[in-house]
Amino acid sequence: MATKNSINVGIIGFGTVGTGTARILLENADIIKRRLGVPVILKKISDLDVKRDRGIKLGDVKITTDAKDIITDPEIDIVIELIGGYKPAKEFILEAIKNKKHVVTANKALLAVHGEEIYAAAEKAGVTVGYEASVAGGIPILKSLREGLAANRIESIYGIVNGTCNYILTLMTNEGRKFDEVLKEAQAKGYAEADPTFDIEGIDSAHKLAVLTMLAFGTPVRFEDIYTEGISKITPIDIEFAKDLGYKIKLLAITKMVNNEIEARVHPTMIPGDFPVATVDGVFNALFVKGNAVGNTLFYGRGAGDMPTGSAVVADVMDIGRDIISGSGNRMPVAAFRERSQLKIRKMDDITSCYYLRFSAIDKPGVLSKISGVLGKHNISIESMIQKGRKEEQAVPLVMMTHEALERNVRVALDEINKMDCVGGPTMVIRMEQ
Ligand code: NDP
Ligand code: HSE
Question: Are 7-138+306-326 and 141-302 the same fold in CATH?
Fold first, then answer.
């Protein structure tokens, strides 16, 4: 066993997650030392703003505005990147790796787009990159996929992985509150990304799905191959219809193996109210993972915030610390598989799903048969239908739920229907999972 009296770390980025991470390292130092056998010492923190009070007693921790001061410090074993974004985060991480430092990051945006380059650089340098905090905040889902479920062929993952969206949808559903107002609240609580369109347009969920898919199936993933649709078009009407039908609308990140191809998609999804993830509310995240040996498993916890995310960051630090202490570097490949394969991500047009379709139909005789005629022509079979209210010669919501249909057929049919005179606006489409 190599002798090492401490694991020394530096944090770049003293924002929400950086503050939580520092707090855990300092306030839980005793339990961390007891678990590891040696202390984890927070030597330095760098941030652009070194004056703001973060409410933590930092003791001997050195504060600097220069990240390089951490990346080049020969005493630092692990560089923790918590600034987010692509630039300069990528350069900092690659430089740290080049300097033979292990890295821990929560930066899913960076990993989703440049992960392969970073994993390859780390493998080459013989160091580790820990990224548990990049998906579902405090839930140890990546460790579970890599280790606890390592014996399984993963069949599917259905995840609520964006706390901000789940918070917004929950308050819109339970309290009938407005989208903008709830988004502001999520931002104030530190859940939202620096650019909240990443959250509400599903991009943040897609970043996380890229990491999950890569780890679950042992394949590189091109971020642009993931179909991404957010929640900004969801209206109170759809939330009400979903309730009436016994469903809930959640922003789901879905990855599954279908005939040796991967479906990887993020979109608002109607799920039955009794499906386990339907009851996951507020900022909480949940992932429903099916493995061929284990069957169904469910992971639940806080997906955002300073302390839950800091919990995952520090767990990675401790894992790497154990490897440093025992001299067993590179025990776990950074991308979890020693032998990876190149799997195809199925085009969205080729997936099948059941659909909730809300037409804005002019209330007059013959309209229903026109719409259902087009659906039938494109091989889309209607499972049930609701029309609420009567306003002769005016547009009213007409909802149809379909049996399983091919996405391509649904798009072609809706293009045709949306152009019809008896339809007063674009049709709302929400995919359903049973
Ligand atoms: P914040 O914006 O709160 O913190 C980032 C900090 O980094 C800011 O204080 C920023 O300073 C500082 N910073 C920016 N550039 C530099 C630089 N060149 N050198 C040193 N410091 C710099 O972000 P979060 O803490 O919310 O997020 C950090 C990362 O964690 C992101 O990748 C995010 O996606 C991820 N994450 C966040 C979660 C959350 O709940 N917030 C949950 C899971 C992951 P300034 O403000 O002055 O620009
Ligand atoms: N903005 C993200 C969310 C932070 O709301 O889930 C956690 O990754």
Answer: no
HEC profile of 154-170: EEEEEEECCHHHHHHHH
Residue 43 structure tokens:
């030597």
Rounded distance between C-alpha atoms, residue 410 and residue 381, angstroms: 11
Task: Tell me the pLDDT tens digit for each residue of 35-48.
Answer: 999 999 999 999 99
Report the C-alpha gap between 393 and 29 in whole angstroms: 70
Could you tell me the distance, in angstroms and rounded to a whole number, from the CA of residue 80 to the centre of ligand 1?
Answer: 11
Q: Of all protein residues, whose CA lies closest to atom 2 belonging to ligand 1?
A: 15
Confidence category of residue 293, pLDDT binned at 50, 70, 90? very high
How far does the centroid of ligand 2 lie from the alpha carbon of residue 303, in Å?
6
- Please provide the CATH number assigned to the domain covering 7-138+306-326: 3.40.50.720
Do residues 38 and 107 touch, judged by C-beta distance below 8 A? no
Site to substitute for ligand 1 among 45, 48, 70, most atoms within 8 A of C-beta: 48
CATH 3.30.70.260 fits 348-432, yes or no: yes
Cα separation, 183 vs 179, whole angstroms: 6
Architecture of the domain made up of 141-302: 2-Layer Sandwich (3.30)
Residue nearest to atom 8 of ligand 2 (CA): 304
Instruction: Respond yes or no: is residue 208 known to be catalytic.
Output: yes
Candidates 9, 70, 95; CA nearest to 310 is: 9
Q: What's the CA-to-centroid distance between 83 and ligand 1, angstroms? A: 4
Contact in structure between 169 and 278 (CB atoms under 8 Å): no
Residues 233, 428: contact at Cβ < 8 Å?
yes
User: What distance in Å separates the CA atoms of residue 276 and residue 248, rounded to the nearest whole number?
Assistant: 11
Residue 350 contacts by C-beta under 8 Å, 6 or more apart in sequence?
406, 407, 408
Using pLDDT thresholds of 50, 70 and 90, give the confidence band for residue 321.
very high
For the chain, which residues make up each domain, given as ranges? Answer: 7-138+306-326, 141-302, 348-432
Residues 304 and 49: their CA atoms lie apart, in Å, by 23
DSSP state of 146: I
Ligand closest to 15 (CA) is: 1
Tell me how far the alpha carbon of residue 205 lies from the centroid of ligand 2, in angstroms. Answer: 8
Q: Which of 90, 101, 108, 208 is catalytic?
A: 208
